[in-house]
Please model this.
Amino acid sequence: MDRKSSLLLKEDKWDSAFFNVKIARLHISGKKPDKSLTRRMHDLIELAMRENIAFLVIKLVDPNPAFEEVIRGVNFEECGESVESTLVYPVSSSGDKLGNHKVRFFEAGDMKEVKNIAKDAFRLSYLYKCGFAKRNIIDSYHMQWAENLTKDKNAVVFVVDVCSRVAGFIAMSIDELKRIGVIILVAVKKEYRGLNIGESLVQECIEWGISNAKSIEVKTQKNNKKALSLYEKMGFKVVSTDKVFYKRMI
Model:
């Protein structure tokens, strides 16, 4: 296999360890697939089989039918579609504040509630569709992800209290060198949804970012129409889309 092909394949060490199966990922982008793409895809599949990869996951950036035809032609299945949006400072604002809840920084005592909220807040995740593990294991994955972010020195986490209980949280990673914030997780407890808590959390990230970031990015599942509408209303602009495909190898 040539060097160009071999560079595409990368094992996800963290996910592989968590799910106890070998998971490899590759990103594909471009306006038009070259004639060698199908051959290289077959080469990648053969390599994955030799290395006992259980799942191959492709992120197709700015998808188009020509690339999708090649990917589906080697028996990958679609499992998700996302929209990436960016908010660039200075932010033009109408003065409207969509959320009016008191937001504060995460504290160590919030961990249990944050993990419980994360447990069932991300049902639109492609992980549930591609079959890495049973639903309860994927729930645990999201709980661990949330916990890791609260301990990450390059992330900021805010929570909202309702009646002295954590009703929602937001986690944003920070690239201090580039001064870019990336909203990673936003979750609201089921019984408190519809109360503009998510809006309050995003608003807090925007206000925090005024003195700490040049821009804020967020990725949203394309079928999460409410979230996409909220981000648009708050000034985020769509910059790219992607589709995720998977192939179970063993």
